Structure formats: structure tokens, C-alpha cells
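Homework help board

Subject: predicted structure for assignment chain

Our instructor gave us this sequence and asked us to write out the predicted structure in C-alpha cell form, then describe one feature. I got the C-alpha cells but I'm not sure how to describe them. Can anyone check?
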Amino acid sequence: MRTRTLNGAAGRVIASGVARTRGLPELLKRDQSVAYLFVAPAFLLLACLVAYPFVLSIWFSLSDARVGETGEFIGLENFRRLVANSIFRQTVQNSILFTTAAVLLKTVFGTTLALLLQRIVRFKRLIRGAVLLPFIVVVDVRADVQRDQLDADGPAPR
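My C-alpha cell output:
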């Protein structure tokens, strides 16, 4: 099928269904280019909100900067002083001890409770509900407290 136009070449292109475009429209027809355009705002936001503060914190850790002062590069001196500080070492030791004990106790207690709940035959649903009740109550209490905080007239009467 041939279309008659003033320009014969344009008529052949339209009839064949192939159009030659240049510039931005042609660029946007490729999926890869459109994908980069969609990802660019998220990448910029990530760079501004994550990468910049991360790099800045590394600079602060390697310099003697104080609030309101630029500071000079001192390398790993801050870390040497930190490791030499007995209070810091005691704090790290306490944190490791507390974390290890908490994980072990939660694992043992949780596994024991799961095995006990699995063996129960009578009142199985009631006991499982009672075990889950503290999780549900915390959410409800938090919602009530937040509602009362945001209420301009003060706490709601109960």
C-alpha cells in the first residue's frame, strides 16, 4: 500500500511503517536510556542523603575537626586514642557481653517455648493466643499514647 504525498520519500516511509527520528525521541525509544532516566533521581537522592554524609563522616574521623572549625588531617590518631582509652575498651567489652548473652538467652528461651507449645494438646489455641497477646497489646497501647499526644485537648477520657 502506497500513500501519495507531496514528498514521495515520506510516503514510502509511512507505508512501510518505519520512521527515522533523531535526537531525544530516538533516545527515548531505547529501553536502556529510559531506564537511566528513571533511576537518575533516585541515584541523586541516594548520593545526597547517604554518600555525602558517609564521606564526610570518614573525613571527620580522620581529622581533628571541631564544631565551627575546619580541622586538619591527623590520620588514625583519633582511633589510636580511642583504643588507648580504658573507658572505651570497657564499653566495647560490656556491649559484646550484653549482645552475646541476649542473643543466647532469646534463642534458648524461644526454642524452649516453641517446643513446649508444640507438645500442648489441650487449649492449644488459647495458650498460643496468650503468648502472642503481649505483642498485640504493645501496638494498641502505643496507638493510644500517640493519639493522646497528638490530641490538642489532652488525653481522651476512658
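Reply (TA_rk): Your C-alpha cells look well-formed. For the description, you could write something like this. The chain is about 75% helix and 0% strand. That's the kind of observation they're looking for.
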